[in-house]
Amino acid sequence: MAGARKFLLIDDDEAFNFLNRIILDSKIAGCKVDEALNGEAALALLAKQEECPDVILLDLNMPGMDGFEFLDEFEKNNKCFGYSKIFILTSSAREEDRLNGFAHKSVVGYLGKPLSDEHVDEILAKAG
Predict the structure, then answer these.
(1) DSSP letters along 92-122, please?
(2) Does this model's pTM top 0.70?
(3) Is 90 exceeded by the pLDDT of residue 16?
C-alpha cells in the first residue's frame, strides 16, 4: 500500500472532515478523500464503491452506528476487510477505547484529534 492515495473519513463532525481533507490534500498529492457521517453511511458507501480505500480514518463517537459498531460490521462481511487500514481518529483519551480499538484486526493506529502533519506521516508509514 505504499503511497496510500484513497481515504475514507468517517466522522459526524463536518468541520473536522473539512480540515482533515485539507491536511490530506496538502500532504499527499493526488489523493482521493470520501466522507461519511456515521458507520451506516460508511458501510453503504463502501458497498457501492468498486475500489476500497487504502486508509479509513474513523471517529468513535457518532450518532447512529458508532465507530465500534462500524468495526464489528466491517470485519464481519465487508469486501474491504483485509485491504483497508483503519486508524481511529478520536478525541477519546480513554484507555478502554484504545484497547477495544486495537482488539479489531483492521485497526492499525489510534490517533488523537485533530489530524496533524505528524499523524499523516505515521499513517503513511503504517499503511505501506
Answers:
(1) ---HHHHHHHHTSTTEEEEEESSP-HHHHHH
(2) yes
(3) yes
